[in-house]
Amino acid sequence: MTDASAPAKAPVTPRPAATILLLRDDPMEVLMIRRHKDQFFSSALVFPGGLVDDSDHSDAWHDLIVDDIGLDAHQRALRIAGFRETFEETGILLARGAEGHCAAQQSQPGASFLDIVRASGGRLVLDDLVPFGHWITPEFSPKRFDTHFFICRTAPGQDAVCDGGEAVALEWATPDSILTRAAEGETSILFPTRLNIARLAESGAVDDAIAAARMRPIFTVLPRVEKRPGGMAVVIPAEAGYCETENFNPSQAPSGKA
Q1: 148: burial class by Cβ within 10 Å (0-12, 13-18, 19+)?
Q2: N or C end of the chain: smaller count of CB under 10 Å?
Q3: Sequence-ordered list of residues with C-beta below 8 angstroms from that of 229, at least 6 positions apart, any chain
Q4: Model pTM?
Q5: Is residue 181 part of a domain?
Q6: 46, containing H or E segment
Q7: Range of the structural domain that residue 46 is part of
Q8: What φ, ψ does residue 151 adopt, rounded to 5°?
Q9: Angle made by CA atoms 223, 79, 28, in degrees to the nearest 5
Q10: Could you give the number of structural domains in the chain?
């Protein structure tokens, strides 16, 4: 029997994470990956990204990053994590050489991301990652993430390669095509992914999307879940500025997959 007088269990502390909407032009496309079945949000179509690691806070990054003025240690680590996870999942190294071009990438099996960046001769330009959104997993979930979304342009000629581990497939797609698939019932496109794609679709080119993101204040979205007749609804504040404020899931219990 449950003790009604027992104090409510405190929500799990969300773990910091970074994810990147990696863009290219003609037409504007975003890189999407599909998660391995053993990963959280298994089989979901998502942006590259993942949890911040202790290595992302290392002082050894000091000489390998630029444009970090105004960023605190947490914000620097978030961006380094975004660069690292994107490299690990897609093989794209978003480091720049002395002339601002894409840094040379060398094969170094087993090397750390820091060593790979150092060997490339380039540096991570933190300002290349432009804040795009901020979502925190609902409080009821047993696994919670404090996820910062960034957008970034790929350098010409950079090819994405699926790592086969955390990500089992990848594709470049236009925002409109992803939204069409979601409207047609593709359930692997989660609510935060769909809304951030819809926000991206408001721009027609990469430069426009980046300019709009630099001007837009970031609103922290903490969805709430409401039980309704026939199912559950995930609801977000209208102040977040997305095109929708709720997602209704018929006959489903809360799953944490907002």
Answers
A1: buried
A2: N
A3: none
A4: 0.90
A5: yes
A6: strand 45-46
A7: 15-222
A8: -115, 150
A9: 75
A10: 1
DSSP state of 7: P
Residue type, 9: K
Query: Is residue 116 situated within a structural domain?
Result: yes
CA angle 46, 237, 22 (to 5 degrees): 25
Phi/psi-derived region of residue 239, left when phi > 0, alpha when psi is between -120 and 50, beta in every other case: alpha
Q: The domain spanning residue 138 has which CATH number?
A: 3.90.79.10
171, β-bridge pairs: 32
Q: Which of 129, 114, 103 is nearest to 22 (CA)?
A: 129
Q: What does the block give as tokens for 39?
A: 């990963």
Contact status, residue 51 vs residue 13, Cβ threshold 8 Å:
no
Q: Which residues pair with 22 in a beta bridge?
A: 152
68 found inside a domain: yes
C-alpha 247/C-alpha 175 separation (Å) is 19
For the segment 184-212, what is each residue's pLDDT rounded down to a tens digit?
988 889 999 999 999 999 999 999 999 99
> What is the C-alpha to C-alpha distance for residues 223 and 141, in angstroms, rounded to an integer?
11
- Residue-wise pLDDT for 154-185, tens only, equals 987 788 887 666 678 899 999 999 999 999 98
In a domain? residue 8: no
